[in-house]
Amino acid sequence: MTTATALYTLFAMVPNILIIDDDRELCALLADFLKLEGFQASAIHDGAEAVTHCRENRYDAIVLDVMLPGLQGLEVLRKLREFSDTPILMLTARGEDTDRIVGLEMGADDYLPKPCNPRELAARLRAILRRLESRHEPETPAVISVGVTCVNMANRCAQHAGQDLQLTSAEFNVLQVLLGRAGSVVDKETLCQEALGRPLSAYDRSIDVHVSKIRRKLASHGGHDLIVSVRGVGYQFALSAGDSAS
């Protein structure tokens, strides 16, 4: 049994991955490698076709190239996020920080620069899928609350003052880590490892972008200045008088 298969015996199936990329040769190579790693993989080479396909078919994760002809990758991402919370890993041109940041802002869970190392792609996909395992674990529902902000690990719902924050999977994980250590500074390395399932790499701004989006969603429901930046270290979810993590 492969590592990936062992991780997902709970689902009685191997993870099903969709690759959306117009480079047919690359898709074939990635699909073949992922299958060797214990995934099921298929590809679609047109953005508009992929959106229509994903309305009718469910995948465990999607690998989406930014540079698509016609309906480009970021627009595909926007349309997918209108009806799907499936984890999405973006493939971006090397050095294109703008595409990476915009992708994360629009709801992507992670990114890799092209050309990508297939082994790293498989590792990133495993990390994404490991984070989703908690949705299926038959445990007593756990809730972390700090003041009027809470996360429920059973249904992966985050709320502030009773209002759903509509977080992506990655944003939920970041907030969960911060709430679990409310009042303490959590360094970016720890956030990246525990929330995204991978080490923090040089020039990686994923955590900063996710935190920025969480802040905006909290603020939209009156939760201003709850996540404090500690320069050069990381972030802290602030405790007000009488608050404690529970």
In short:
With 246 residues, the chain is an alpha/beta fold. The chain has 9 helices and 12 strands.
Describe it.
The chain is an alpha/beta fold and 246 residues long. The protein folds into 2 domains: 3-135, Rossmann fold, CATH 3.40.50.2300; 143-237, Winged helix-like DNA-binding domain superfamily/Winged helix DNA-binding domain (Arc Repressor Mutant, subunit A), CATH 1.10.10. 39% of the residues lie in helices and 21% in strands. The chain has a 5-stranded parallel beta sheet, sandwiched between helices. A hairpin with a 3-residue loop joins strand 11 and strand 12. The longest helix has 15 residues, at 118-132. The chain is globular. The relative contact order is 0.11.
* CATH level-four homologous superfamily name of the largest domain: Response regulator
The major pleated sheet works out as: 5 strands, parallel
Name the strands of the widest sheet in spatial order: 2-1-3-4-5
CATH architecture tag of the largest domain: 3-Layer(aba) Sandwich
Poorly predicted residue ranges? 1-12, 136-140
Give me the Rg, rounded.
18 Å
Q: Tell me the overall shape.
A: globular
- Provide mean pLDDT, rounded: 86
Run of helices and strands: HEHEHEHEHEHEEEEHEHHEE
What is the helix tally?
A: 9
User: Termini separation (Å)?
Assistant: 39 Å
SS content category: alpha/beta
> What proportion of the residues form beta strands (DSSP E)?
15-25%
Q: Give the number of DSSP strands.
A: 12
Overall tally of domains: 2
List the helices and strands and how they pair.
Blueprint (H helix, E strand, L loop, with lengths): L2 H5 L8 E5 L3 H13 L3 E5 L2 H10 L4 E5 L7 H9 L6 E6 L3 H9 L4 E5 L3 H15 L10 E4 L2 E4 L4 E4 L2 E2 L4 H12 L4 E3 H9 L9 H14 L7 E4 L3 E4 L9
Parallel strand pairs: 1-2, 1-3, 3-4, 4-5
Antiparallel strand pairs: 6-7, 7-8, 8-9, 10-12, 11-12
